[in-house]
Amino acid sequence: MIRTEKLCKFYSLHSRHEVRAIRDINLNIAKNTFAVFKGPSGSGKTTLLNVIGALDRPTEGKVFIYDEEITSFSDIGLSRLRREKIGFIFQNFHLIPRLSSWENVSYPLIPLGIGFKERFQKAKLLLEKVGLGDRLDHTPEELSGGQQQRVAIARALINNPEIIIADEPTSNIDEETSVHLLELLKELRNHGVTILVATHDTNFQKIADKIYKIRNGRIE
Amino acid sequence: MKLSEINNMKKHINLFLLATENLLRHKTKSIVVSLCIIAILLPFITAIAISEGVRMQSLSSVEESADLYLTFDEFGRNAAIPLKYLDEVKDVFGVKKVVPRIIGRCYLQDKLAVIVGIDKEYLPESTSCVSGRIFENASEVVVGHELAENFNLTIGDQLSMRGQNRKLFTVVGFFSSASNIWSASTLFMSLQDAGDLFGKQGFATDIQIYSVPGHNAEIATELYYIFENEPYRLQDKDMIELYVKKGFMLKEGIFTALYTVAFALGIPAILVASGFGLSERRKEIGIMKATGWQTLEVLELISFEQLLISLFGATTAILLSIIWMKCFNGAFIAQFFIGEINLLPKFVVPARFLPLPCLLSFFFAIILTMVGSIYSSWKASTENPVASLK
After folding, report:
1. Going by DSSP bridges, is the β-strand pair A2-13/A17-29 parallel, antiparallel, or unpaired?
2. Are B389 and A115 a contacting pair at CB < 8 A?
3. pLDDT (tens digit per residue) in B193-223
4. A143-147: long-range contacts at Cβ-Cβ below 8 A with a sequence spacing of 24 or more?
5. CB contact under 8 A, A82 and B386
6. pLDDT tier at A154 (50, 70, 90 boundaries)?
7. What ipTM was predicted for this assembly?
């Protein structure tokens, strides 16, 4: 389902130094796989997930999703891919500060032309599923870190994605929420969703179908 | 209608509603940007309305006045014409009526007043609005509203002016503040009295000729023979109208030039105001893009926001301009278009709010807000979401 060929991403810092975040990464992840990427900080996990998830473009190499080369997609094509197939869970949650929980969750539905009531119902269902049914109208600043992460998870699920990409999802949340998140991801995997997680959490590694160890931008 | 078209329409509605919500959510920013727009547009709309009002009144004055204006020519300028020619002009074929008048200026203490000397039966219709009565006897004057208020004049008061001859006049009536603006600082008196005042007995500044339609050319030919050896000057209504229009275009032009400078200086203010929360906005755009929003959808949302705030700002500026005219009589701006009036005019300053300047204001507001926001938003929405989310 997800395949990469010689994937590289380099960053130029003030044109002096070139940082090679990932180098020659070849991956082949089948549908419905729970894949975990582990490695020390700065090893290139986040960059790899960003490139696979179409949030960033590689410097060299190719990414295929369902045998379609997404690296050649236009900006519109990439947006459509993110909208239809991929859900992101970020380490820093990335919620919009002034919006309530349900508004944050339903935000991706606005450009789809879905009406207010339907958006609210969908968001409510997902927030109830992540245990935040009583926090629908709370803004991010009124929620704890764990609760914010659950809102972000609900938002990632709003479009029924086929791929979930989670970057260090448990680094800013408590143990209990972490376990809850793990259960949720397991359930999603059981429903046919492909999950890619970058994490140090050993609990995730225990249930992973595949573990990729990254060091200095390469898979070991 | 196809399902995709319906969804597309719903998308635009969603984006419009979200834009409204965003403006309400970011109240401080919305208020600051609106205030900038209002501060920039209010003087412009008011000035254009006054200019249009005064122009309209001038043109209607020209419209109700004579068909031809006869004066003498001295050094290429209008000069006084002797009244001895009056009967000859009156007898020209096609002439319905001739009205000699004296229009001059002199000081009433420190205040410059316009003196109009005309026989009472020829007073223009627009000057009929009076309290008291029209002058009937020698040395009687009807005083404009502003002058009367300035010197606390009442009927029966006596006044004298700094003319060539010291002469005592008795106030017998006033023009109301609602009458034509030209009458505000005007003193109306008989032709005889005006001649006495300026020491020009037997002369008029011009002779107004009312003609039978279509006879102006014939009259001009006849006048040529009457004034064969005299330096006379004949102007028709169209020419006067052209002068009036030209004068206002010049004033509007000067105002617009000055205003363009102010407008250009206002852009940085809008840029600063629009820049509030830009980093927060950039991150928001990053989140939108990461969750599947397309660049055009992001830009549409931001354009709706700018459109709404421009509409609000421009509409408020128009409403405040109307209130400014009603309550403060165009204070501080009217003096630019009407000479020798106070900061707070004591007569009703005419104003006309035409659709085109109002539309232009809205257009200005859109340009201002777009300049302040669309580039940064476009930049944020076209870069990789990862960059915007940093």
Report:
1. antiparallel
2. no
3. 999 888 888 999 999 899 998 888 889 898 8
4. A143/A101, A145/A93, A145/A172, A145/A173, A145/A174, A146/A173, A146/A174, A146/A176, A146/A177, A147/A177
5. no
6. very high
7. 0.92
Among all residues of chain B, which has the CA nearest to that of A58? Answer: B384
SS (H, E, C) chain A: CEEEEEEEEEEEECCCEEEEEEEEEEEEECCCCEEEEECCCCCCHHHHHHHHCCCCCCCEEEEEECCEEHHHCCHHHHHHHHHHCEEEECCCCCCCCCCCHHHHHHHHHHHHCCCHHHHHHHHHHHHHHCCCCCCCCCCHHHCCHHHHHHHHHHHHHCCCCCEEEEECCCCCCCHHHHHHHHHHHHHHHHCCCEEEEECCCHHHHHHCCEEEEEECCEEC
Q: For residue B268, give Cα distances in angstroms to B277, B303, B376.
A: 16, 19, 14
**Mutation choice for A interface testing from B13, B30, B287, B295 by most A CBs within 10 A:** B287
Among the partner residues A95, A97, A108, nearest to B292 by beta-carbon distance: A108
Q: Is B384 on the interface with A (CB under 8 A)?
A: yes
Answer with the residue of higher pLDDT: A31 or B64: A31
Q: How far is A80 from chain B (nearest CA, A)?
A: 6
- How much is the pTM? 0.74
In this complex, is the C-beta atom of B286 within 8 Å of any C-beta atom belonging to chain A?
A: yes
CB B115 within 8 A of CB B207: no
Q: How far is B307 from chain A (nearest CA, A)?
A: 19
Q: Taking Cα atoms as reference points, which of B151, B121, B123, B156 lies closest to residue B139?
A: B156
Asked if A95 lies within 8 A of B386 by C-beta distance, the reply is no
Q: How far is A113 from chain B (nearest CA, A)?
A: 4
Q: How confident is the model at residue A203 (pLDDT cuts 50, 70, 90)?
A: confident
Place of tokens 């597309």: B8
Closest CA to A160 of A116, A103, A112, A207: A112
